[in-house]
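Many introductory courses stop at the sequence. We go one step further.
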Amino acid sequence: MSQPPAYVQTVHAAVNPPVVVLVRSPELTFGDVLCMVIAFFIPPLGVFFKRGCDTDFCINLLLTLLGFLPGVIHAFYVIYVHRGNDELQYQSIA
């Protein structure tokens, strides 16, 4: 049996073998790349498109007001960390 990729996490239940695998998309989607392009010019807007008006947006707005480069770096970080779907996908392996 081969090892699963590094981005696959196995959840062990009370029975063997494991019942559920949580998978996060490792690739950047077209929407992620578009958000990064927008974030290069207007960092808070790229974060807003990816995450909405939440804590990440407020932090990015503050960083951008304090200095443009910290805002861009934070925007790229937020977009990369939340790449693909924001939700984990559940796949049954039973």
